[in-house]
Amino acid sequence: MKIILSTLPKEGGAIQWFSPKYYLPDTSAYAPLGLLSLATNIPQGNEVKILDPHSHNWSIDRTMQEIEKEKPDILGLSVVTSKAYQMTQILKNTSALYKVVGGPHVTHNYNHILSQGADAVFLGQLADLEFSEAIQVRPRGVIECNTQINQIKFPDRSFIDQEFYYSTGNLFKSNKRMSMFSGVGCPNHCNFCDVQTKKIHRKDTKAVLDEMIYLQSIGAGSVHVYEDNFNTDKRYLEKLCKEMDKREFSLEWSGRGQAKMDLGTAKMLSDRKFKRIHVGIEALSDETLRFFGKKQDVNQVQEFCDIMNKNSIDIVGFFIIGTPTETEEDRKTLSKKVKELGIKYPLFSILQPLPNTQYYKDLLNQGVYQRDFWGDYIKNPTKDFMIPFPYGEDKWKRDAKFIEELIDDFKNNPQDDF
Predict the structure, then answer these.
(1) How far is it, in rounded angstroms, from Cα 7 to Cα 63?
(2) Distance of CA 62 to the CA centre of its chain
(3) How far apart are CA 323 and CA 391, in angstroms?
């Protein structure tokens, strides 16, 4: 049986006006780890191929041509809501006998997806075991998924050309950096965030290190660990570090996390070549942090940055511009404060209301939006949909100009090697 698993192309998607082009160069590519995991856990005896039109910058037509060229029995699409239009076009214009959809878009919109051409949708954070069963019996409708992260094998990178996915970008250089997941889910309730699973599920530390060693064996010079709360469980990190010592693992690595870590944990990680942490700081104003629903205040951010800097752990700090709580003083002092905190790689974006976020719901409840724009788009996806700017286009232009000024400031006055 031939199975094609595919991401979706960028062309035609909902316009994301929150992130400057500088941070998203056309050369950037992200390994489709979710599809790799599905492919790895499919029973032997099936022919499986992964297509990644997103990273290869294919058009919708090119994507459909590549799918049809393969003549798959089963087509599986990984979908986020901003790509609902591309999904409908591909479902409608491809000929696989069994077409299924998974990914974040399914959670709130499965009935619409089924009416738009999918034979089945996979509802749940992980669908590896359920998908493996479905390719045999091809059930229709909603398939509820309960795959646990420690029940499945880590992704086999031989399904893709890994060299194509070595991380590149404008922020920092890395040596053949490969990415992996150590867990899924986030218990926080930031009002702008659309992460759907609110309980953390982590891989066993031995399994995490197994994958890191595997990535090193196929050429990785650096490993980046995706998990929004990677650094929040000290006992988990202690177990991982003990496993590293036991198996004499030595390689540069980095991870996502929260802006909180004690001195002992930071030193423990730094001693084992932990080089960089990516954290959502979002703002350096307590009022704006409260608006976002963040659990930290500015003093805690300061303490976190001090600890990272003392342990030579570089900080990639994410900041969001454009909240109604933001003052002119906040803007005037932001660049100076970021530098004083020693945040080596700041990344600035504009607050954009994403579907099913508390921020978007608040805009509807407050009457800022008079209709459910995302809801209408999901029911009838249109090409290049763009949600209106909640506070007007002039404010968005000012926000975009301010971010360009910040980017220029840090490019021209780098924190060491920005």
Answers:
(1) 9
(2) 25
(3) 9
Global pTM value:
0.93
Conformational region of residue 392, where left means phi above 0, alpha means psi within -120 to 50, and beta covers everything else: left
Q: Report helix, strand or coil for 5.
A: strand
**Alpha carbon distance 147, 163 (integer Å):** 30
Directed axis angle between helix 263-270 and helix 298-310, to 10°?
40
- pLDDT averaged per 10 residues in sequence order, the chain, 418 residues: 97 86 72 97 96 97 98 98 98 98 96 98 96 96 97 97 78 81 93 89 97 97 93 96 97 95 97 97 98 96 98 97 96 97 95 96 97 98 96 93 93 61
Q: Is 184 helix (H, G, I), strand (E, B) or coil?
A: strand
- Identify the bridge partners of residue 168 per DSSP, sorted by sequence position: none
Residue 98: helix, strand or coil by DSSP? strand
Euclidean distance between the first and final Cα of the chain, in Å? 49
pLDDT digits (tens, 9 = 90+) for 329-385: 999 999 999 999 999 999 999 999 999 999 999 999 999 999 999 999 999 999 999
What is the tens place of the pLDDT at every residue in 160-198? 999 898 866 656 677 899 999 999 999 999 999 988 888
Q: Are 341 and 299 in contact (CB under 8 A)?
A: no
Of 232, 231, 280, the closest CA to residue 253 belongs to 231
Three-class SS state of 72: coil
Pair of tokens at residue 47: 């022919």
**Virtual torsion, Cα 353, 358, 359, 365, nearest 10 deg:** 110
* Neighbouring C-alpha atoms within 13 Å toward the C-beta of 287: 7
- Cα separation values, 135 from 45, 75, 99, 100, 112, Å: 12, 10, 10, 10, 22
